[in-house]
């Protein structure tokens, strides 16, 4: 894609994330995997408080970063009106 075609597109096409896009589908899978993994991580950290937390904190920061990006992405998803309205 060249810059001329990007300049002709409306800004909303460049910012809004389509609900059926591959990015959104793969991001949803990653987010679900992180949600399932984080529950086991927090349970492990709560059960064994004397473990070496270096790697656990790194994994925790990565998961929290993904959750933070998911929160931001939700503001850019396209809005679909219900059919009943």
List the helices and strands and how they pair.
Layout: H1 3-8, H2 11-15, H3 22-47, H4 53-73
Describe it:
The model has no long low-confidence stretch (mean pLDDT 83). It is built from four helices and no strands. The chain has a domain at 15-73. It is elongated. Helix 3 (22-47) runs antiparallel to helix 4 (53-73). By secondary structure, the chain is mostly helical.
Overall structural class, as computed from helix and strand content, comes to: mainly alpha
- Estimate percent helicity: 55-70%
Mean pLDDT score, rounded?
A: 83
Question: SSE order in H/E notation?
Answer: HHHH
Tell how many strands the DSSP assignment holds: 0
Strand content: under 5%
| Assembly status | single chain
Largest sheet, if any? none
Low-confidence stretches: none
Short summary:
With 85 residues, the protein is mostly helical. The chain has helices at residues 3-8, 11-15, 22-47, 53-73.
């Amino acid at each position: 894609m060249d810059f001329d075609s990007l300049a002709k597109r409306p800004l909303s096409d460049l910012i809004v994330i389509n609900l059926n896009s591959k990015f959104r589908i793969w991001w949803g899978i990653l987010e679900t995997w992180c949600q399932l993994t984080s529950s086991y991580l927090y349970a492990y950290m709560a059960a064994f408080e004397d473990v070496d937390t270096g790697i656990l904190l790194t994994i925790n920061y990565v998961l929290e970063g993904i959750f933070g990006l998911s929160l931001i992405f939700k503001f850019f998803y396209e809005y679909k009106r219900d059919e009943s309205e």
